[in-house]
Structure formats: structure tokens, C-alpha cells
């Protein structure tokens, strides 16, 4: 189990992504995935109030509603649910009144007394940061939210958020959700990880499997020909270096008897300040691989091999 930052949230080091619920996984498939995840020891679910407003016929909050129905049906103990605010069609941005209204709507859809972990989904520079920080702090003080976090924020803005929180005497964020994986390392390792180490923040990375590329499904540059809705995004990683990373993951995974995806998650899990990578499953038969990624332990030599094959050059100082 892994503790998220300075919080009391103690979770299996893998977060199940709820972005597919109501999109590539319908209600029944979503229930089956959630059942398999929790049966295998998973206890950390990630969603957002905007999922999946981009799907024709959806309005936003679709993933939260499915998760809420599942929670009401199964009544699982100890499951941690994270959600986010700023992108729902009816609750755009991070103005104080909007943050509160969006949080109340999420609580209703999820059917919970309080949101365990509440993210500012994207920075909103049109609103004074003081207003946003105060709104998040008030949600914690009033018990609507247990802990706060930020997603897609620069290191500079996170540092400023923490400064303001301390000045206002409200809760600091406990986690950061960045885009981070074996084929996307630079910005996080240069800027976000040092900040997280300084302030005892945990990383909960999204795109942990690079939109599916790090499953090994896309082994050539014509990956966009696949029928998956995410194939075009995954194909962008099918470079010479990207395919070398897949080969290395496959060899290491074979040693441990786990998949390419599980090995990629294990590498990410082992990085400084990372608490729980986020990975999603559109089918129940994909869940076991994800859970393997939460448990397999790579050796120092194996981690070094993956570091080297995915090496990037830091920016000049």
C-alpha cells in the first residue's frame, strides 16, 4: 500500500482511470471492470466531472454517475475516489462559486458524503489563484472534500498555490496529476518531481500507458490504422526510440511473467514521488495486467535499462 502525500489515504499503488466509463465502456462493462479491479485488491478510482462530455449523447458527469451507481450497488469498503473540476460544460473554470457548485454536483452524482481527493483539473489563469485556493480550502474545512490536489499545473503555479494556502491557513494540496510515462519524461522529471519532493506531494500520473502505446499493441508507425478511438494518439509514440522501449519492456516483462503494460506501470511506480499511476481498462480482461503493474517489483538493473532506453536530454541551464 502507498500513502498519498501527507494525507491519510493509503492505497494500492495503481489508480483505475474512469475516463472510459460511459465512453468505450458502457454501464455493464464499467461495473464488470470495477468489480474485477476491487476483487483484485484495487481501491483507488480516478475520474472527473467532465468525463465523458465529448461523447455524442453525453453531457458530462457520465463517468461519475456510473461510479456512483456502482458504489451504491456494491457498497465497497475503503475505496478512494478522486474527481476533478474545471472542464464540465456546466461548470467551466475555477471561480470560487463554480468550484463549490461543481463539487456539490460531483458529490451528488457519486453518492458520497465527501470527495476523497479533489483536483483542480486545469489551471484557470482568468481567475485569481487566491480565489481558487480559498474555494478549495473551504471545501475541506466544511467537509465536502477530504483532500485537494492539482492536475496539469506548472511547477511555478503549484508553488504559488502552496504559498497562498499557507497564507490563508487552508489545506495544501497532497497530490499532483501530470502527464508522465516512459515516452514522456522531460518536464515532469525536470520540474514537477523536485517540487513534489520539496513539499511532500505524491504524483498520480495520467497517460501512464501513453494512450495505449505502452501496452505493446502498436508496434509500427501505421498504428493509426487501428480502429481504437485512441489509436491515433498512441501512434505518435511509434518512433524508433519508442519501439526500442517496447522491446525492452517485453524482455523484462517476460522475466517476471507479466505483460508489457504491467512492466511499464512498474517502472513508473518506481519513480521518485510517484504514488499510483492511472491506467484505464475498456474490457474486464485488461484489468489483471493493470493489477500486475501495481505489484511486480523491477530490479535496479531492470529500472536502469528502461531509464537508458528512454533517456532524454535535460534542458540547458
Summed up:
This protein has 317 residues and is α/β, with parallel strands linked by helices. 41% of the residues lie in helices and 13% in strands.
Corresponding CATH superfamily: NADP-dependent oxidoreductase domain
**What is the CATH architecture assignment?**
Alpha-Beta Barrel
Largest pleated sheet: 8 strands, parallel
Number of E-type strands = 12
Radius of gyration: 19 Å
What can you see in these coordinates?
The chain is of the alpha/beta class and 317 residues long. It has one domain (2-211, 259-298): TIM Barrel (Alpha-Beta Barrel), CATH 3.20.20. 41% of the residues lie in helices and 13% in strands. The protein is built from eleven helices and twelve strands. It has helices at residues 27-39, 62-74, 96-110, 129-141, 155-168, 186-199, 231-235, 240-256, 260-269, 287-293, 300-309, and strands at residues 2-3, 10-11, 15-17, 44-46, 80-85, 87-88, 91-92, 115-120, 145-151, 175-177, 202-203, 278-279. An eight-stranded parallel sheet has the order 11-10-9-8-5-4-3-12, with helices on one face. The protein has a two-stranded antiparallel ribbon with strand order 1-2. A two-stranded antiparallel ribbon has the order 6-7. A hairpin with a 6-residue loop joins strand 1 (2-3) and strand 2. Helix 4 crosses helix 5 and helix 8 crosses helix 9. It is globular and about 50 Å long. The mean pLDDT is 95.
Amino acid at each position: 500500500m502507498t500513502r498519498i502525500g501527507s494525507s491519510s489515504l493509503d492505497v494500492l499503488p495503481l489508480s483505475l482511470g474512469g475516463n472510459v466509463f460511459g465512453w468505450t465502456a458502457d454501464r455493464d462493462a464499467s461495473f464488470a471492470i470495477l468489480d474485477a479491479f476491487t476483487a483484485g485488491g484495487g481501491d483507488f478510482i480516478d475520474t472527473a466531472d467532465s468525463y465523458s462530455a465529448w461523447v455524442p449523447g453525453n453531457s458530462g458527469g457520465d463517468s461519475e454517475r456510473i461510479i456512483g451507481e456502482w458504489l451504491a450497488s456494491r457498497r465497497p469498503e475503503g475505496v478512494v475516489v478522486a474527481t476533478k473540476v474545471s472542464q464540465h460544460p456546466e461548470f467551466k473554470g475555477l471561480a470560487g462559486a463554480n468550484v463549490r457548485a461543481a463539487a456539490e454536483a460531483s458529490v451528488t452524482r457519486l453518492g458520497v458524503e465527501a470527495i476523497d481527493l479533489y483536483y483542480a483539473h486545469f489551471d484557470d489563469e482568468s481567475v485569481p489563484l487566491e480565489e481558487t485556493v480559498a474555494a478549495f480550502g473551504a471545501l475541506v474545512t466544511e467537509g465536502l472534500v477530504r483532500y485537494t490536489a492539482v492536475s496539469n499545473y506548472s511547477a511555478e503555479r503549484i508553488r504559488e498555490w502552496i504559498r497562498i494556502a499557507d497564507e490563508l491557513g487552508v489545506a495544501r494540496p497532497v497530490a499532483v496529476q501530470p502527464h508522465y510515462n516512459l515516452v514522456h519524461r522531460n518536464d515532469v522529471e525536470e520540474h514537477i518531481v523536485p517540487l513534489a519532493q520539496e513539499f511532500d506531494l505524491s504524483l498520480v500520473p495520467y497517460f501512464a500507458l501513453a494512450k495505449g502505446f505502452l501496452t505493446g499493441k502498436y508496434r509500427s508507425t501505421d498504428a493509426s490504422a487501428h480502429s481504437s478511438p485512441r489509436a491515433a494518439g498512441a501512434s505518435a509514440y511509434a518512433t524508433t526510440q519508442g519501439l526500442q522501449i517496447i522491446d525492452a519492456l517485453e524482455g523484462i516483462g517476460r522475466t517476471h511473467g507479466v505483460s508489457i503494460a504491467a512492466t511499464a506501470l512498474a517502472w513508473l511506480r518506481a519513480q521518485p514521488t510517484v504514488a499510483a499511476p492511472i491506467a484505464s481498462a475498456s474490457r474486464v480482461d485488461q484489468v489483471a495486467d493493470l493489477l500486475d503493474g501495481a505489484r511486480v517489483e523491477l530490479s535496479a538493473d531492470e529500472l536502469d535499462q528502461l531509464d537508458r532506453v528512454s533517456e532524454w536530454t535535460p534542458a540547458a541551464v
